[in-house]
UniProtKB/TrEMBL annotation:
Family: Belongs to the WD repeat coronin family.
Ranges for the WD repeats: 18-60, 68-110, 111-152
GO function term, MF aspect, one: actin filament binding
Cross-referenced SUPFAM superfamilies: WD40 repeat-like
Gene3D superfamilies assigned: YVTN repeat-like/Quinoprotein amine dehydrogenase
Identification of the protein by name: Coronin
C-alpha cells in the first residue's frame, strides 16, 4: 500500500510503497494514538506493524517493525482498541479473533465463539464491548477479555454484513440484505438483540453498504460499494430514530472509503467529516468533505464538541486486568497540535511458540505462500524417501535376524 501524507494530485508510478507482505493486503488501520504507526493484515496469515518515517517514505519499505503470527488462515480484519495503547484485535479466516499486546508482541486473548468468517468488528466508546457480524448470519456482542457472548441475534430476515456501535447510545446499527435481496439497515438495542428496533430498506442494488458514524454530530453516513453516492442521516434517541437528511452524488463509483480522524479536519471551513474515496476506474483517491454551511467565521462550538483525542486512557496491563475508561477528550478550537509523545517500541521476542488459552497457535501452521508450499512439498518428499529407505533397511535386518534365529534352532547343540 501507499503512504503520501504531504502530497496531492497524481503520484508517480514508482512512488515508494509499503510492500513487505507475501500475499494480498486485506485490511490496514492507523494507530489512533501514534500517528505514524500502521497495522496491516494479509493473506500470508500475518499481522504486521509499520512505522512510517518522518516526512514520508523515501524508498520501498519491506521490513515491518513487528511481525505477528498466530492465525492459521489469512487475516481479514484488524482493529485498534479505542482507549488503550498497543492493544490490537485481528480476525482471521480460522474464525478466531486474537487480541495482541504489542508491548510484548504476543497474543494474550483469543475469542473463539464464531463458526464462520468474521465480516466486521466494532467497539463501543470505552472499548469494553466488541460487536461482530459473521458469515454464519449472526450478530454478536462480546465481552472481549473473557470472550463471553453477551448477546446474539440470528439474522435470517436481515443478513448482516457490517455493524457499528452508535457511540454511547447503547445502540448498534447494521447494514445487510433482506430476504428479498434488497439492501437494508437495522437499528438494535445492544442489551437485547432478539428483535431490531427498526428496519429500513434502502434500495435493490447489490453492493455492500458501509456505515460510518460520527458521535459528535450524531450523523450516520451510508456508502455503497460500487455506488457513487453517500447518504446521510441524523440519529435520534426517540422514534423514528433515523431521519434522512441528504445525499452526496457522484458519477464515479467507489470501491472503498477511508476516513480522516477528527483532529485532521479543517474547523475553519466547518468541515465535520472527510472521506477518502477509492476510485478504481481512474486509479485515484478523491477527498470528499462534509461541510456545515455557516456564515460566521468564528469557531462553531455546537458542531465541534470535545472529541476523543490522541492520548490513550489506559495501558495494556490496565485494560487486560479489567479496567474500563472513557476516551481522553480534546478540543479542536485551537486546531490540531501534535502533543502526544508516545513512540512505538517493538519488543524483542525469542519465543517461537504462541500459546493462548493453552493452545499453541503456531503448531502445524500451514504454508503462507506458494514458495513456502513448494519448499514444504520438497521437504516432505525428502522425508518420505528417507523413511522408505529406513523401512527397507529395517526389513532387511528383520530377515537377517529371522534367518539367524532359524539357524540357531536347527543347530546340533539345540537338538
Amino acid at each position: 500500500f501507499l503512504d503520501f501524507p504531504f502530497q496531492t494530485g497524481r503520484i508517480e508510478p514508482n512512488y515508494p510503497k509499503v510492500c513487505g507482505h507475501q500475499g494480498n493486503v486485506l485490511d490496514i488501520k492507523w494507530n489512533p494514538f501514534i500517528e505514524n504507526i500502521i497495522a496491516s493484515c494479509s493473506e500470508d496469515t500475518s499481522v504486521r506493524i509499520w512505522e512510517i518515517p518522518e516526512g514520508g517514505l523515501k524508498r520501498n519499505m519491506t521490513e515491518a517493525v513487528l511481525e505477528l503470527y498466530g492465525h492459521s488462515r489469512r487475516v481479514g480484519l484488524v482493529e485498534w482498541h479505542p482507549t488503550t495503547n498497543n492493544i490490537l484485535f485481528s480476525a482471521g479466516y480460522d474464525y478466531k479473533v486474537l487480541i495482541w499486546n504489542l508491548d510484548i508482541g504476543e497474543p494474550v486473548k483469543m475469542i473463539d465463539c464464531h463458526t464462520d468468517v468474521i465480516l466486521c468488528m466494532s467497539f463501543n466508546t470505552d472499548g469494553s464491548l466488541l460487536a461482530t457480524s459473521c458469515k454464519d448470519k449472526k450478530l454478536r456482542v462480546v465481552e472481549p477479555r473473557s470472550g463471553r457472548v453477551l448477546q446474539e441475534a440470528s439474522c435470517k430476515n436481515h443478513r448482516v454484513n457490517r455493524v457499528v456501535f452508535l457511540g454511547s447510545t447503547k445502540r448498534l446499527l447494521t447494514t445487510g440484505v433482506s430476504r428479498w435481496n434488497t439492501r437494508q439497515i437495522a437499528l438494535w438495542d445492544q442489551e437485547d438483540l432478539s428483535m431490531p428496533l427498526i428496519e429500513e430498506e434502502i434500495d435493490g442494488l447489490s453492493g455492500l453498504l458501509f456505515p460510518f458514524y460520527d458521535a459528535d454530530t450524531h450523523m450516520l453516513y451510508l456508502a455503497g460499494k460500487g455506488d457513487g453516492n453517500i447518504r446521510y442521516y441524523e440519529i435520534g434517541s426517540e422514534k423514528p430514530y433515523l431521519s434522512y437528511l441528504m445525499e452526496f452524488r457522484s458519477p464515479a463509483p467507489q470501491k472503498g472509503l477511508g476516513v480522516m480522524p477528527k483532529h485532521g479536519l479543517d474547523v475553519s471551513a466547518c468541515e465535520v467529516f472527510r472521506f477518502y474515496k477509492l476510485i478504481t476506474l481512474k486509479g485515484l483517491i478523491e477527498p470528499i468533505s462534509m461541510i456545515v454551511p455557516r456564515r460566521s467565521e468564528t469557531y462553531q462550538e455546537d458542531i465541534y464538541p470535545m472529541t476523543p483525542g490522541t492520548e490513550p486512557a489506559l495501558t495494556p496491563d490496565e485494560w487486560l486486568s479489567g479496567m474500563n475508561r472513557d476516551p481522553i477528550l480534546m478540543s479542536l478550537k485551537e486546531g490540531y497540535k501534535r502533543t502526544s509523545k508516545i513512540v512505538f517500541k517493538a519488543p524483542v521476542r525469542e519465543k517461537k511458540s504462541v500459546v493462548v488459552n493453552g493452545i499453541d497457535l503456531l503448531e502445524n501452521v500451514p504454508p503462507r505462500t506458494e514458495n513456502e508450499l513448494l519448499r514444504m512439498f520438497f521437504r516432505q518428499q525428502d522425508e518420505i524417501r528417507r523413511l522408505k529407505d529406513e523401512l527397507s533397511q529395517k526389513d532387511i535386518r528383520i530377515r537377517q535376524l529371522q534367518l539367524e534365529l532359524k539357524n540357531l534352532r536347527n543347530s546340533p547343540k539345540n537338538t
